[in-house]
Design a protein that fits this description.
This protein is 23% helix and 34% strand. It has 170 residues and is an alpha+beta fold. It has a single domain, classed as Thiol Ester Dehydrase, Chain A. It starts with 10 loop residues before the first helix and ends with a strand.
């Protein structure tokens, strides 16, 4: 059951307790921004369609040519940079960890990215695409969390990687 804190008090009105118990939790961009403590231009998730504490997250980013990185990467052939895709993965992996820590009664816990491994890019992500991310926490022990993240466009794998976080104080 979620414990509500002042900075996430909006959840009281948004989340049905039954949905949280079965692991179904949708989040808007403003809720994600508060939980991740990010704002534009570094908030790279537009929404969450499913999240399960310490387990899994399904998130997405709707891409338009107005994204800050497209005009420079590349002017005649805009492509979402791989480093930005990895940052979106790290944000999707962080969400179930942060929600899980909040459920355990911990205050805001900083996460330290310690690794991005086995990074692969299979197709370009371009304006007009919906970049869907499936992040799965594979191991969470002794303050270290490892996860896999896969990015899809039209149900086709666009990129993937392994993410490792150190949970500070964990």
């Amino acid at each position: 059951m979620l414990r509500f804190y002042e900075d996430v008090a909006f959840w009281v009105h948004v989340i049905n307790p039954f949905q949280v118990a079965i692991g179904v939790l949708m989040m808007s961009v403003s809720e994600i921004a508060i939980l991740l403590n990010r704002s534009y231009p570094m908030l790279l998730l537009d929404g969450v369609t499913y999240i399960d504490s310490f387990n899994e997250c399904r998130a997405y980013k709707n891409l338009t040519y107005n994204e800050w990185f497209f005009p420079a990467h590349f002017p005649d052939n805009p492509i979402m940079p791989g480093s930005i895709q990895i940052e979106a993965f790290t944000q999707a992996v962080a969400l179930p960890l942060l929600v899980g820590e909040r459920n355990n009664g911990a205050p805001s816990i900083p996460l330290l990215l310690v690794g991005a491994d086995k990074v692969r890019f299979y197709r370009p992500v371009v304006p007009g695409d919906k970049f869907e991310i499936k992040a799965k926490i594979e191991r969470h022990s002794l303050g270290i969390a490892t996860a896999s993240a896969v990015g899809y466009v039209n149900n086709e794998i666009a990129s993937e990687c392994k993410i490792t976080y150190k949970i500070m104080g964990g």
